[in-house]
Amino acid sequence: MRYLLIILMLSFPTLTFSQPNCNFYKIDSTENDPCYQACLLATEAEGGQGSRKSQGLFDKAIELCPSLDYAYYEKSVPYLKRGDLITWKKLIDKAVALNPTGRLGYRGWCRYQFVKDYKGAIQDIEKLDSLVKYDIGYSQNGDYHLNIVKALCYKAIGQKEKAISIIENQLQQDNYSPLPYDFLHLGVLKMEMGYTDEALKDLQKSIQLNSYLADSYYYLGLIYKKAGQYKSFKENMEKAKALYLKGYKRLDSYTEPLDKVYLADIQAELNG
Amino acid sequence: MQVGDIYFNSKIDDPDFKVCDDNNVLQYYNFGNGIQYEGEKLAINKYFIGELKSKGLKKDTGYITIRFIVNCEGRLGRFRVQEMGNDFNEKEFSSDLKNQLLNLTKGMSGWMVGEHQGKSYDYYQYLTFKVEGGSLVEIMP
């Protein structure tokens, strides 16, 4: 049974993490450097995420090298995923204190995704932005640039104009390629603010980028409905439903994405 | 042993609630399907918003997390509660709100059996309720 559990854990999705290069700790030292040894322990932790064995290895790594933020960070993850936010925050705060530029973006994203602590997420992302001169990077799951995450947080606390402005600014950045949900969120924001023509264009762009997403067709359908274009409304809702039933919908193994559409939403519109 | 494991406690747990395999209780996210509930997350939101009686509640703010097991037959048990303020420290909510959320969680009927390749598994699930001024504002995950 334990063998089966290992197979299952390898088969199912888990968040992916970038590991540190432990050789960094040997640059000015030797293989006996406690932080090098601690890094090896932390990166080779076995037994499955959240297991007593792997958590114990992180503890040992921290004991050997109290400045190894990676060990605190990895140790914190199962608490976050399993709903123990108190323990998670204590551990991730230590990682952030040891390595602010490396961990603030991650903590900010988690405060958005798992805690709905929108103001805290904004603080973390803005703090990171103030500390670095390079691009602040992306969410842990790769769905968003952190500036888009910040915009979604502003939306969640009611500052929708600011959210629109942040997304539009991000889309205008050199060397930035829109991610699959950028125009979806922008279109929904504009629809909610009554900027119907712009919302229509943004949702059409969303479909150009990713034509296999029920959510974009649903919101496009709502716009056509409001405009009295019932044929287009119906076509888009039917498309949304067909895609949804095939599994082409927003899905995250851990949490529910913002602006996610549900089958009952689509069906309610079709039932009129 | 895993982070978040919940062991039977005869003082608070229903002795009739059984798990199929105590050594192999998965996490909800292991299935890769998100929230596995009849009617999806929307139905969970509607259930709590519809059933929670917020009138007269103390104006508490923070988070209440209820973690439990959905067994291989879809039954629920071994409920545990964590209460937290917005500062991520422990805090105590009014028992009225806490008990309502706990009893409503115990009364949920739409959790699906965790299945993989035709086999049913027990799994851990949690619900975190974000509360502002005594009102339920969001439910996670």
What are the main properties of this structure?
heterodimer; A: 272 residues; mainly alpha; Serine Threonine Protein Phosphatase 5, Tetratricopeptide repeat; 14 helices; 65% helix; elongated; disordered N terminus; B: 141 residues; 5-stranded mixed β-sheet; two-stranded antiparallel ribbon; 2 helices; 7 strands; 30% strand; TPR_rpt (chain A); signal (chain A)
Total of DSSP H or I helical runs spanning 4+ residues of chain A: 14
Radius of gyration of chain A: 22 Å
Shape estimate of chain B:
globular
Helix fraction bin of chain B = 10-25%
Radius of gyration of chain B: 15 Å
- Which stretches of chain B are low in confidence, meaning pLDDT under 50 for 5 or more residues running? none
- Structural class call of chain A reads mainly alpha
The average pLDDT of chain A is 92
The count of β-strands of chain B is: 7
Terminal CA distance of chain B reads 23 Å
What fold name stands as the CATH topology of the domain at 180-272 in chain A?
Serine Threonine Protein Phosphatase 5, Tetratricopeptide repeat
- Note the main sheet of chain B: 5 strands, mixed
**Helix count, DSSP H or I runs of 4 or more residues of chain B:** 2
Quaternary form:
heterodimer
Question: Mean pLDDT of chain B, nearest integer?
Answer: 96
CATH class category of the domain at 180-272 in chain A: Mainly Alpha
Provide the β-strand percentage band of chain B: 25-35%
Strand content of chain A: under 5%
Summarize the amount of helix of chain A as a percent range.
55-70%
Shape of chain A: elongated
Per DSSP E runs of 2 or more residues, the count of β-strands of chain A stands at 0
Describe the structure.
The complex is a heterodimer of chains A (272) and B (141). With 272 residues, chain A is an all-alpha fold. Chain A is elongated, with a radius of gyration of 22 Å. Mean pLDDT of chain A is 92; it is low at 1-16. Chain A is 65% helix and 0% strand. With 141 residues, chain B is α+β, with helices and mostly antiparallel strands. Chain B has one domain (26-140). Chain B has two helices and seven strands, in the order βαββαββββ. Chain B has helices at residues 40-51, 95-106; strands at residues 26-27, 62-70, 76-84, 114-116, 119-121, 123-132, 135-140. In chain B, the strands form two sheets. In chain B, strands 1, 2, 3, 6 and 7 form a five-stranded mixed β-sheet that branches. The longest helix of chain B has 12 residues, at 40-51. The mean pLDDT of chain B is 96. Classes of the chains: A mainly alpha (272), B alpha+beta (141). Chain B: This is TonB protein C-terminal. Chain A: Keywords: Repeat, Signal, TPR repeat. Chain A: This is Tetratricopeptide repeat-containing protein. Chain A: Residues 1-18 form the signal peptide. Chain A: InterPro entries: TPR-like_helical_dom_sf, TPR_rpt, Ycf3.
